[in-house]
Amino acid sequence: METRELTCIRCPIGCHITVELENGEVKSITGNSCPRGGEYAASEVTHPERIVTSLVTLTGGERPVVPVKTAGTVPKEKMMDVVRALGEVTVPAPVSIGDVIAEDIAGTNVPVIATANVSAR
Amino acid sequence: MAEIKKDLVIIGGGPAGLSAAVSAAGEGVKDLLIIERDVRLGGILNQCIHNGFGLHTFKEELTGPEYADRYIKMAEKEQIPYMLDTMVIDLSYDEASGEKIVTAMNKTEGLFTVRARAVILAMGCRERPRGALNIPGFRPSGIYSAGTAQYYTNMEGKLPGKRVVILGSGDIGLIMARRMTFEGAKVLCVAELQPYSGGLKRNIVQCLDDFGIPLLLSHTVVDIKGDRRVEGVTIAEVDENKKPIPGTEKYYECDTLLLSCGLIPENELTGKLGAKMNPVTGGAFVNESLETDIPGVYACGNVLHVHDLVDYVSGEATTAGKNAADHILGKTVSGDDGVIINVKPESGVRYSVPSVIRPAFMPDTLTVRFRVGNEYRDKNLTVSLDGVQLMKLPKRVMAPGEMEQIVLVKSKVYEIISGKDIREHELIIRVEDKE
User: Fold this and answer.
1) What is the CATH code of the structural domain delimited by B129-261?
2) How far apart are CA A21 and CA A42, in angstroms?
């Protein structure tokens, strides 16, 4: 039996939730005060996912970097892989919001898009 | 010195200024001008590249620049004129004409004045600097406010340091803990003087817990070591009086100290104007129309009181824009009968916006925003008017980091105040124990 302690982020109450797992399967969820907290805890302990926001290098732009985000969530344990892969990406200016910067980042099958407009220098 | 006339001048082109301008233009004010000191519109949102903005306004999670772009597009659609790279240096009130005199300067126009029928203050806030924190120790380089580090990292593409300690658990500090980790820095810990965090729960989970960065509550920096560059800081636990407890000191070797210890509304201009200020918020005192005690001068966003969500800034600024438009277009619905309700925050409630309500000018429902001064669990929030209880709201949790609000219904207010022969009424908001 494995026990995991979480803080719920679905609302400002921030319930302290305890999840008991056996062989990766949720056995019990306690401490949440609503069903949304239960859902959050179950997904958070089995397959936590995050949107990753970071920067990529920009050439010929009014700024040296442009902010980007993953177009969908990626597995939490892949976050640093995504960020490291983005560290290798360089794009030319100009860039507009929504421009696809990478089709499939770090083997996640999730594209990365620009989140700011940066004009050419 | 050149002088121009405008119906409405909006000082600041960040989220508050943009929303206010779009709202006023939508109400029919066409002779308006946004004055922005940066080289682009959008304000602080431009460097807030993380997501989580717009959940209330657009029902989706946007990053800061994307949220700003939505409002910039609306402003462009309304063809709202704006001046960039332009600094407002003085603001005064000409009582005889009722005009507000905005003195500004930039590289192309030099020094110039704008005479405006109404002004919306939307200058935002700035971070509490080291000088206001009384941290002992040397003064080497490597000490940044979290927002400055955010600017260097996200706008200039320069990482301020590699081994980082963060003092204060404000949201920008938490966001920077994750940001600098992503950029390859090692964030050792976040120390918070208070026994609770000043930031949003979701930021503690997603910016600290996700990366195993410890949050040390009731801890502070008691020494900074380093001659030219920060070499390390000493952190100690504090007692209930915020005094460091001897023997709890721990030394952290680091090259960077970020400060995220609160935000201060940027009100130098408001002070020059002579508007009455609220010492608790650092912003102006405003009435139900978000108007200061100088007629035709409105305030909204972080210059009025520091918000936790930009969505609330946009909402408040939209109201300020509408009210300024009503003032300019003479659309104010009813005359001033001189009756006022003073809003009194008591027992755990630190302040309220607005702080005075003229019932004759109330919309059908009026949102009153406030913050509490401590972390409270299982309490009642009570609202009473002239001793009559209007609301008793059970609250699971209230915390200083999260803004609270109540909605007053005009008809209910009149049920209590009408027929009384008094001109000053009293609305009290309190945190109370459950019976």
Assistant:
1) 3.50.50.60
2) 10
Adjacent-strand bridge partners of B196? none
Other Cβ atoms less than 10 A from the Cβ of A90: the count is 10
Strands A112-114 and B376-385: unpaired
Taking only the tens place, the pLDDT of each residue in B113-131 is 999 999 999 999 999 887 7
What residues are paired with B382 via a beta bridge? Answer: B392, B430
Q: Does B155 touch chain A (CB under 8 A)?
A: yes
Task: Give me the interface pTM, i.e. the ipTM.
Answer: 0.88
Kindly list the residues from chain A whose CB atom is less than 8 angstroms away from the CB atom of residue B156.
63-65
Segments of B208-287 assigned E as strands = 215-217, 219-225, 232-237, 250-253, 256-259, 263-265
Phi then psi dihedrals of residue B154, to 5 deg:
-90, -25
Q: Evaluate whether B338 touches B423 at the Cβ level (below 8 Å).
A: yes
Which of A14, A33, A55 lies nearest to residue B201, judging by beta carbons?
Answer: A14
Cα B263 from Cα B298, distance rounded (Å)? 21
Q: Do A40 and A9 contact (CB within 8 A), yes or no?
A: yes
Q: State how far the alpha carbon of B136 is from the alpha carbons of B187, B224, B225, B233, B237, in Å.
A: 22, 7, 10, 10, 15
For chain A, the structural domain boundaries read: 2-46, 53-114
Q: Do A14 and B402 touch (CB under 8 A)?
A: no
Q: Which residues of chain B does A34 touch, with a Cβ-Cβ cutoff of 8 Å? A: none
Contact A72, A110 (CB under 8 A): yes
> Which part of chain B has CATH 3.50.50.60?
2-126+264-332, 129-261
Written as six digits, the tokens of B229 are: 């560059």
pLDDT at residue number B334? 60
Please state which CATH number belongs to domain B357-433.
2.60.40
Q: Do B154 and A55 touch (CB under 8 A)?
A: yes
Q: Nearest CB to B49: which of A14, A55, A80?
A: A55
Residue in B with minimal Cα distance to A51 = B51
Q: Does domain A53-114 have CATH number 3.10.20.30?
A: no
Chain B CB contacts of A79 below 8 Å:
210
Q: Give the pLDDT band of residue B1 (cuts 50, 70, 90).
A: confident
Q: B2-126+264-332 maps to which CATH number?
A: 3.50.50.60
Structure tokens given for B183:
């950029």
DSSP 8-class letter at B302:
G
CB count, 10 Å around CB of B398? Answer: 24
Please give, rounded to a whole number of angstroms, the shortest distance from the CA of B201 to a CA of chain A. Answer: 6
Tell me the per-residue pLDDT of B269-317, one tens digit each, with 9 for 90 and over.
999 999 999 999 999 999 999 999 999 999 999 999 999 889 999 999 9
Phi, psi of B12 (to 5 degrees): 115, 125
Mean pLDDT of B58-87: 96
